[in-house]
């Protein structure tokens, strides 16, 4: 069975993606609804300092990406965000990461569908409770569900067609905001608006840090890891898979940073000039364009308000199928999701239709639970994303003896991983109690489902016939002897501490010194938790040696049979 599964995995990773396709995945995931709707939210929280939120978010993403790219190039594996933590830290930590990742991608489907509905509201009436409201009407709910179904349906096409469509769609999605920045600067910065807006003073770096999570900034940057979701599918001929991954990921983050900061500056300047920021359910930039007479640009932006979120939703839905397949191959969820051959429409079409169906229902439940609010959906997504992004740093340091790094490069990786873990903790603390508890409760629900559904399948034979996965929750019984359980307890304890600090210091009207104390404690406890996680992970690998894929540069002299066995669990 292990050999058969390895063959299916090898077949799944035969397709080789070019830099163009990889950038299409990264930029296609990043450029969605965040740039259109996040500027107004960030401005409301940080005032004229809102551009700092995009700077902080981008720098944090660069740091995190540095860790993830190093891990993804040293052990290139499609579905690696789940597979690699499983190898380093065991099934329980992998389950926490998997629950967060699955929910991020599923909630993205809901949030992009809501953004599409808001974008369409300029043309179709009755979708929102009011023109400046975040609440959907019954008609709006129906449109959102139809958009979710449409995004899922497009992912049923053959992957070679999907990547081609997505790559060229991404080109269009990037051209529109770049054109918007240029034209609005040229046409509007030398004009005086009606004077009703007035300058809003900046609220400081602390407010900007809060806006990073709660205003859709993190949400806007999420998606750069798309190429890493397909790390096992990258072309290996010169310049090599590692170079292609780095170019796609870092190029996307740096480019989006520049673009997002420029868009926020344009938004702030127009607001301060008095141009109306009301009635912005779709895109504020479309209203600015209409106000200064660029009607054709306004129409283009309104159309893009539907197309751009759909494009991002397509990328996330497609990437989710690969991550869930990796989760299934590890028997952390239903085994029937693990191969394209078992879960696709046809052997010729590498399409995980069953994962798409499950994703649709998870997204629909999230949409209902969060009241169809884009703000709530993106805030929860931001928290979950940061939790998921914290795990690769632990994995990279834990696996250092197995990745072939040594000397200065290894030391640099360790500093990078610890710094990213600490900064993620600080940003989560800065998000405040409201966003943090919503995100943590969502993560807890996902973990409970993944951990206890296998037990339920054992207790109920009828359910067991349709759901087949290993029972891992029992590892907690032997926490004193099980390093995998200890690693999970370190991670969960770290999240509980952050939640407690946010409750004590986050949203209460306290002074700067108390706020600083809370941030100091968040960073300190994060570094302690990181060391505990790494030690427990290494003890786990002493008991269960990791089985890692081999990079192409190191595998050139290895036979194809050995290369297949290298990725066998």
TrEMBL record:
<feature type="transmembrane region" description="Helical">
    <location>
        <begin position="287"/>
        <end position="307"/>
    </location>
</feature>
<feature type="transmembrane region" description="Helical">
    <location>
        <begin position="140"/>
        <end position="158"/>
    </location>
</feature>
<dbReference type="InterPro" id="IPR052962">
    <property type="entry name" value="AA_Transporter_AGT"/>
</dbReference>
<feature type="transmembrane region" description="Helical">
    <location>
        <begin position="204"/>
        <end position="224"/>
    </location>
</feature>
<dbReference type="Pfam" id="PF13520">
    <property type="entry name" value="AA_permease_2"/>
</dbReference>
<feature type="transmembrane region" description="Helical">
    <location>
        <begin position="487"/>
        <end position="505"/>
    </location>
</feature>
<feature type="transmembrane region" description="Helical">
    <location>
        <begin position="81"/>
        <end position="107"/>
    </location>
</feature>
<protein>
    <recommendedName>
        <fullName>Amino acid transporter</fullName>
    </recommendedName>
</protein>
<feature type="transmembrane region" description="Helical">
    <location>
        <begin position="170"/>
        <end position="189"/>
    </location>
</feature>
<keyword id="KW-0812">Transmembrane</keyword>
<feature type="transmembrane region" description="Helical">
    <location>
        <begin position="415"/>
        <end position="434"/>
    </location>
</feature>
<feature type="transmembrane region" description="Helical">
    <location>
        <begin position="245"/>
        <end position="267"/>
    </location>
</feature>
<feature type="transmembrane region" description="Helical">
    <location>
        <begin position="20"/>
        <end position="38"/>
    </location>
</feature>
<dbReference type="GO" id="GO:0022857">
    <property type="term" value="F:transmembrane transporter activity"/>
</dbReference>
<dbReference type="GO" id="GO:0016020">
    <property type="term" value="C:membrane"/>
</dbReference>
<feature type="transmembrane region" description="Helical">
    <location>
        <begin position="351"/>
        <end position="371"/>
    </location>
</feature>
<keyword id="KW-0472">Membrane</keyword>
<keyword id="KW-1133">Transmembrane helix</keyword>
<feature type="transmembrane region" description="Helical">
    <location>
        <begin position="377"/>
        <end position="403"/>
    </location>
</feature>
<dbReference type="InterPro" id="IPR002293">
    <property type="entry name" value="AA/rel_permease1"/>
</dbReference>
<feature type="transmembrane region" description="Helical">
    <location>
        <begin position="517"/>
        <end position="534"/>
    </location>
</feature>
<feature type="transmembrane region" description="Helical">
    <location>
        <begin position="50"/>
        <end position="69"/>
    </location>
</feature>
<feature type="transmembrane region" description="Helical">
    <location>
        <begin position="440"/>
        <end position="460"/>
    </location>
</feature>
């Amino acid at each position: 069975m292990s050999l058969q599964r390895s063959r299916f995995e090898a077949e799944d990773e035969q397709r080789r993606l070019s830099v163009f396709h990889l950038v299409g995945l990264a930029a296609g995931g990043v450029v969605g609804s965040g740039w259109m709707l996040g500027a107004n939210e960030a401005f409301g929280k940080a005032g004229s300092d809102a551009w700092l939120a995009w700077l902080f978010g981008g720098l944090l993403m660069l740091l995190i990406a540095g860790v993830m790219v190093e891990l993804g190039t040293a052990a290139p594996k499609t579905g690696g965000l789940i597979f690699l933590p499983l190898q380093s830290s065991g099934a329980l930590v992998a389950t926490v990461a998997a629950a967060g990742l699955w929910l991020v991608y599923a909630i993205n489907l809901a949030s992009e569908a809501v953004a599409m509905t808001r974008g369409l509201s300029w043309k179709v009436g009755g979708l929102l409770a009011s023109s400046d409201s975040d609440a959907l009407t019954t008609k709006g709910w129906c449109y959102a569900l139809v958009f979710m179904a449409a995004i899922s349906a497009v992912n049923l096409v053959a992957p070679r067609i999907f990547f081609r469509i997505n790559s060229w769609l991404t080109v269009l999605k990037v051209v529109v905001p770049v054109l918007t920045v240029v034209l609005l600067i040229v046409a509007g910065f030398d004009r005086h608006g009606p004077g009703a807006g007035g300058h809003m003073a900046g609220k400081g770096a602390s407010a900007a840090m809060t806006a990073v999570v709660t205003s859709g900034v993190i949400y806007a940057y999420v998606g750069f890891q798309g190429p890493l979701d397909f790390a096992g599918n990258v072309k290996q001929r010169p310049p090599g898979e590692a170079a292609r991954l780095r170019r796609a990921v870092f190029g996307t983050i740096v480019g989006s940073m520049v673009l997002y900061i420029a868009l926020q500056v344009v938004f702030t300047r127009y607001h301060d000039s008095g141009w109306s920021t009301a009635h912005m359910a779709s895109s504020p930039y479309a209203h600015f364009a209409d106000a200064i007479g660029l009607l054709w640009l306004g129409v283009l932006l309104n159309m893009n308000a539907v197309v751009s979120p759909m494009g991002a939703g397509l990328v996330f839905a497609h990437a989710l199928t690969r991550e869930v397949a990796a989760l299934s191959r590890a028997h952390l969820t239903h085994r029937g999701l693990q191969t394209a051959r078992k879960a696709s429409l046809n052997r010729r079409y590498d399409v995980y239709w069953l994962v798409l169906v499950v994703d649709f229902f998870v997204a629909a439940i999230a949409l209902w639970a969060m009241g169809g609010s884009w703000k709530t959906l993106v805030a929860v997504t931001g928290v979950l994303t940061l939790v998921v992004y914290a795990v690769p740093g632990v994995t990279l340091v834990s696996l250092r003896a197995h990745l072939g790094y040594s000397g200065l490069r290894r030391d640099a990786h360790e500093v990078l991983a610890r710094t990213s873990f600490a900064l993620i903790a600080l940003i989560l603390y800065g998000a405040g109690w409201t966003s943090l508890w919503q995100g943590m409760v969502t993560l807890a629900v996902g973990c409970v489902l993944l951990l206890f559904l296998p037990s339920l399948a054992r207790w109920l034979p009828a359910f067991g016939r349709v759901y087949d996965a290993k029972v891992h929750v029992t590892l907690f019984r032997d926490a004193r002897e099980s390093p995998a359980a200890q690693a999970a307890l370190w991670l969960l304890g770290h999240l509980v501490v952050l939640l407690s600090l946010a409750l004590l210091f986050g949203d209460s009207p306290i002074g700067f010194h108390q706020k600083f104390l809370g941030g100091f404690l968040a960073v300190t406890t994060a570094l302690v938790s990181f060391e505990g996680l790494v030690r427990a992970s290494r003890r786990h690998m002493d008991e269960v040696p990791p089985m890692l894929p081999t990079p192409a540069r190191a595998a050139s002299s290895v036979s194809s049979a050995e290369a297949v066995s290298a990725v066998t669990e």
